[in-house]
């Protein structure tokens, strides 16, 4: 098997691979028909479930932030880290709370997301956005 060095940016990748990586992150971001299944096929074929983009966002982070609970659930089931922080120290759960994505919040909690991970934490986000009930629930988790 050929050995490859890890590129620092997408621009370091060959053009066809850049297009493929862009497609993967677009699938996670936009969701839609078959996105979860398509990503699952790539992961089952060897793609890291924790692939990150230039901002440290994983496929799961982008799916969570954009409200795709089905994609979040599928990625978590395939080994994606539900607590992996992006380069800004943000967690997928905090992002879902910021975007008020209730189904994603539930999917992440069911998959074991830590409400104390990142900065601000998911608990902090719930408090910042006036959701005291959720903040209390997360504090008791």
TrEMBL record:
SUPFAM superfamilies from the UniProt entry: Ankyrin repeat
Pfam families: Ank_2 (PF12796)
Extent of the ANK repeats: 55-87
Protein name: Ankyrin repeat protein
Coiled-coil residues: none
Lineage, uppermost ranks: Bacteria, Bacillati, Actinomycetota, Actinomycetes, Mycobacteriales
Record InterPro entries: Ankyrin_rpt, Ankyrin_rpt-contain_sf
Highest taxon listed in the record's lineage: Bacteria
Keywords: ANK repeat, Repeat
Family matches, as SMART domains: ANK
């Amino acid at each position: 098997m050929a050995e490859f060095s890890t590129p620092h940016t997408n621009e370091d990748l060959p053009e066809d691979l850049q297009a493929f990586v862009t497609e993967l992150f677009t699938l996670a971001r936009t969701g839609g028909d078959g996105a979860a299944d398509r990503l699952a096929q790539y992961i089952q074929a060897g793609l890291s479930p924790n692939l990150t983009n230039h901002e440290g966002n994983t496929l799961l982070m982008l799916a969570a932030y954009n409200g795709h609970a089905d994609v979040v659930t599928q990625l978590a089931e395939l080994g994606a880290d539900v607590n992996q922080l992006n380069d800004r120290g943000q967690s997928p759960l905090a992002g879902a709370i910021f975007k008020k994505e209730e189904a994603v919040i539930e999917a992440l909690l069911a998959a074991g997301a830590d409400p104390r991970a990142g900065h601000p934490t998911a608990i902090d986000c719930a408090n910042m956005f006036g959701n005291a009930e959720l903040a209390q629930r997360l504090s008791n988790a």
